Amino acid sequence: MTHAAARLAALAEEVMGAPLPLRIRAWDRSEAGPPGAPVLILRRRRALRRMLWKPGELGLARAWVAGDLDIEGDLYEALERLAGLLWEKDEPTASRSARLAAAWKALRDPGTRNAVRDLVALAGPGLPPAPPREEAGTGRGPLHTLRRDKRAISHHYDVGNDFYELVLGPSMVYSCAYWERADTTLEEAQRAKLDLVCRKLALEPGRRLLDVGCGWGSMVLHAAREYGVRAVGITLSEEQAAYARKRIADAGLTERIEIRVQDYREIDDGPYDAISSIGMAEHVGSVRYAEYTRILHRLLVPGGRLLNHQIARRPEPDEEAYHVDEFIDRYVFPDGELAPVGRTVTQLEEAGFEVRDVEAIREHYALTLRRWVANLERSWPQAVRLTSPGRARVWRLYMAASALSFERNRIGVNQVLAVRTPDSGASGLPLRARDWRG
Q1: pLDDT attached to residue 147
Q2: Is the dihedral of CA 93, 98, 100, 101 positive or negative?
Q3: Would you say residue 284 has pLDDT above 80?
Q4: What is the pLDDT of residue 111?
Q5: Distances from the Cα of 170 to the Cαs of 161, 215, 238, in angstroms?
Q6: Within 13 Å and on the Cβ side, how many CA atoms surround 219?
């Protein structure tokens, strides 16, 4: 009798037209595939049912989160080997859609129908189990309403501050660090990023800063402590706000910093001298982005600066065909969207901003993510206790896959410095590039 792993390897190659790049270990302990390669472990037959009922990324993600499927060996290498089959983001969306359509058509062809039937038989009887409980449910209806955005933010951020402490380390900064050298510490690199933002915004004592999407308060704390500003930080996460307020109280800065649970659309106490938006704009969505830029422009004094730090995707030949990554949307950032940096710059300009500098730092995010993954793996049993096995698996997969995406230029991250230039045309910036204080 043929063992399950050998049957799976042969059937997968027949359906996909190429051998699996990973070794397979099946539920019956049999193995097949290239020696020395990372091992794709199918712990239970239902992993196969999940993948058959939702072919592609979502079925694999559900099997991974549920623990029905695992990787033995180097996770980064395994993801690289799978990328060509499932996650090759440098392939245009139109080409990916055509390739997936061709594969789906092939499943109906007589030549592969028997292979599919054999896969179904190997998976065992019955429907796939329900999706893991970690899968988000933001509800139906229009995207990016106040209620839906709050629910989406809660799904990602309200999973326990103790868990985030394990992953992020003492800095508690959940965005790309800024590395002077690759061998520096994560905390030093995050401090360098916060200081870079403060310098680009030309912060000085007495100036008023708004931090949109303030997280656990690291930016406002650094700006108030090191640059003497008065700061307001806003977040939609109750857990983040409580944590930030305690940090601020412990630092003796409650007179200079205010933390609010508030949407950017609800801010009515401008103007501010400077605005930082670090890793928040990805949650805004294309349907709201023009509104977002107009609101930030209105909230600044003439001559005020905005630092918009945002992940960007590569432009698509057919932008209408662009679709959000299913795993990220269901398990990580519900309703999140990435835009090309050119579109971001255009929309800032259309809102009235003068864009003065764009700094691309995608390699920095790859280094940051690899440090976060290492933190998570080092404290794995505790991370599982603080959240759930499925949640810890979600974070490990998304951070490792994201690190590879930044390294391979599938996505990038940019700091865009923009000014609400007054009618006089005096921007307040220096003649010499990147001497931010003027």
Answers
A1: 85
A2: positive
A3: yes
A4: 53
A5: 12, 14, 20
A6: 35
Spatial distance between the Cα atoms of 299 and 310, rounded to a whole number of angstroms: 19
From 3-12, 110-119, 189-198, the region with the lowest mean pLDDT: 110-119
Q: Quick count: other Cβ atoms within 10 Å of Cβ 392? A: 26
Place of tokens 């864009």: 355
Cβ–Cβ < 8 Å for 309, 413: yes
Q: How many residues are listed for the chain in this entry? A: 438
Cα 184-165-284 angle, rounded to 5 deg: 95
Please say if the pLDDT value at position 174 is more than 70. Answer: yes
* Residue type at position 286: S
Average pLDDT, the chain: 89
Measuring CA to CA, how many Å separate 383 from each of 49, 207, 334? 28, 39, 22
Structure confidence at residue 53 as a pLDDT band (50, 70, 90): confident
Q: What is the DSSP letter of 265?
A: G
Amino acid found at 81: R
Position 97 pLDDT exceeds 50: no
Residue 431 CA neighbour count, 13 Å, CB half: 0
d(CA 434, CA 145): 38
Question: Which strands sit side by side in the sheet containing 230-235, from one edge to the other?
Answer: 257-261, 230-235, 208-212, 272-278, 300-313, 411-419, 354-360
341 closest CA partner among 417, 234, 401: 417
User: Encoding tokens for residue 401?
Assistant: 């896959």
114, pLDDT greater than 90: no
Q: Give the SS3 label for residue 184.
A: coil
The 3-state DSSP composition of the chain as helix, strand, coil percent (nearest 5) reads 50, 15, 35
Burial of 189 (0-12, 13-18, 19+ CB in 10 A): buried
> CA 79, CA 404: separation in Å to the nearest integer?
8
75: helix, strand or coil: helix
Task: Provide the 8-state DSSP code for 131.
Answer: P
Structure tokens at 261: 């649970």
* Selected residue with higher pLDDT from 349 and 182: 349
Is 60 exceeded by the pLDDT of residue 383? yes
User: Residue type for 253, please?
Assistant: L
What's the distance, CA 257 to chain centroid? 27
- Position with higher pLDDT, 52 vs 287: 287
d(CA 367, CA 389): 25
H/E element holding 398? helix 389-407
Integer Cα distance of 429 and 393 in angstroms: 45
